[in-house]
Write a structure and sequence with these properties.
six-stranded parallel β-sheet; homodimer; Rossmann fold; six-stranded mixed β-sheet; 339 residues; 3 domains; 434 Repressor (Amino-terminal Domain); alpha/beta; DNA-binding
DNA sequence: CTGAAAGCGCTTACAG
DNA sequence: CTGAAAGCGCTTACAG
């Protein structure tokens, strides 16, 4: 009666014995198209098998299956840290898309440490994942060429790297949007809290801003660009550095919402009112941005979709296709912090 | 020379062939204590095996191993959502502790939906995880009794449930700390943004506060307690409801930092200054709290440790021990929002 | 249409 | 000390 016995999971052999047929027939039927039992067994036998399987709640042992098929239906995901909201949301997209095509995902934190990243890759490979989604790629040193040489199937997510397939936001475009917005609002003295120089997200967002700013005729004297950590504390420290210099800017672009929140804190400490004395724009439009005491302008990036697309890309790689990187379009949400 | 061939992973049989011995001997040695080869093979043979294994980078196929041993070394973790920073940090603790004892963890989001929770449990079980860490337990309806009947090894995390082992913060105590603090600061008209009534975290934090408040001689007229979602938007909505009532409170306790941030936004919209016109206290002391423009007082809970302890508890359950729930001690961080 | 065999990579009593 | 066998649960050509 479909009760789940606690003892031992029911096996293919159990089903076969119950029905008085051979296990291979059961296996064949369970793997054939539900409608047409095409050559797997007679329609009658197929029906009996399916009915019994449903009744006892048969679920094949994935370990046994993958030992035979040499595929684990497992995806390995490596991110800097899951406690970074941006990565957590991308992972939700991954999980959803992976489940839809019958894969499960492992996820692990590298803390953006290169040695740890290598270690996590080896752990994933030891677990025999079918492929890897790498969310912590560094622009400088990197394991990527080595992975390619070893023919490990993988794609990048969030951060791109020339020559490797990736699913990212068009971060260059995102930076341009901010430059255009601040310029149009009349700002001429601006600073950028630029993030970590090893991350393409930081480099592209900053680069897009800088290039567009110059194209508009703007200037960015030395000290206008401050590299920083991506978190709130990093943003606060960078803003302190900016505010301690000669003349304060009238606008700050932080390439991450959390860094932007830190900057807002520093501005307040200096007695400045965000949105009046100094505009602030963040990046990613996390759920917090719109709900802050002073709502934060931010570049919206389709985070969950970036995760889903990464799975789609990896699917292609696993099929042996030559896949094209995707760069998803950002949009700017203007709010009180820079209105 | 220890190069990772791309073709096929090296197997036990490969090692045995290379050394001219039987695979079972290799297996025996690789499973015996590295120092004493105690009866597995001669010291000389053992050394040769270990050297070759290290040289070619042998890593056993976990699928094959678990097919034999009937253990997958896999843990299933179910949380409401990983994009909730609190759960993401607990998961980091889980991952760390699990890795330390040779387990890997799957994590999946139930969105606090009871049907989805059941579905995720079945998916985990179909994957043959050795045990489950459940982070989305509901106080009312719940799968827990059924899981116990099915003899599924599991523990709860973050939220507790009477009669089942759990790793949580002592949320009752956390609520008490806030009541004592606000009372000492002279507040007499307070409101609680209480969270979701199905979560023990919300119920215990609120309950601890209410009981202590009454014990101190305080009053909580109807409408002082507002149940809400845990996120920023939920906090804002709850605060709006509180502020639209007759007389505004002089202090608000939100049982979650994100809800507290939403409340801060609502207060500002009403022209009130947080920390002056109305105190706000949150819960969890997430990394954001201290860095906000107006730093937020918050009850610190040892999130990563809660995750680690959950793994320890599950380890006990897997060994068949009767484990005791752990309730970790919170502490209050007072900042400008309620100074 | 269905059965029987082989084998994925491993571990574990059991001999000798 | 070491070998040989059995078997975990499955899938997949191959016969008939």
């Amino acid at each position: 009666m479909g009760n789940n016995t606690t003892e031992r999971a029911v096996t293919l052999k159990d089903l076969a014995r119950e029905l008085g047929i051979h296990p291979s027939t059961v296996s064949r039927v369970l793997h054939s198209d539900p409608d047409s039992a095409r050559g797997a067994a007679s329609a009658a036998t197929a029906r009996r098998i399916r009915e019994l399987a449903a009744e006892v709640g048969y679920s094949p042992d994935p370990q046994a299956t993958s030992l035979r098929t040499r595929r684990t239906q497992l995806l390995g995901v490596i991110v800097p840290r899951l406690s970074d909201l941006v990565l957590a949301i991308m992972y939700e997209g991954i999980e959803e898309a992976a489940a839809a095509i019958g894969y499960s995902a492992f996820v692990t934190n590298s803390h953006d440490d290169v040695a740890e990243q290598r270690r996590q890759v080896e752990i994933m490979l030891a677990r025999r994942v079918d492929g890897l989604i790498i969310g912590d790629s560094h622009l400088d040193v990197d394991v990527l060429p080595e992975l390619r040489d070893r023919a490990v199937p993988f794609v990048l997510m969030n951060r791109r790297h020339p020559g490797f397939p990736s699913s990212t936001c068009d971060d260059t475009r995102g930076g341009e949007l901010v430059a255009e917005h601040l310029w149009a609002k009349g700002h001429r003295r601006v600073s950028v809290i630029a993030g970590e120089p090893y991350a393409s997200t930081a480099v592209d967002r900053t680069g897009g801003f800088v290039d567009r700013w110059h194209a508009l005729g703007g200037e960015l004297p030395d000290g206008s660009i401050v590299w920083s950590r991506f978190d709130t504390q990093g943003g606060r420290e960078a803003a302190e550095k900016i505010l301690s210099a000669r003349s304060a800017p009238t606008a700050i672009f932080a390439v991450n919402d959390f860094a932007a929140i830190g900057a807002m804190g520093a501005l307040r400490s200096h007695g400045m009112i965000v949105g009046q004395d100094c505009a602030v724009v963040g990046y990613n439009d996390t759920s917090l941005a719109a709900e802050l005491p002073i709502p934060l302008s931010s570049v919206r990036s389709p985070m969950a979709e970036i995760g889903r697309q990464a799975v789609g890309l990896l699917e292609g790689v696993l099929r042996g296709e030559a896949v094209e990187s995707v760069r998803l379009e950002p949009s700017l949400q203007v709010r009180e912090s820079s209105a």
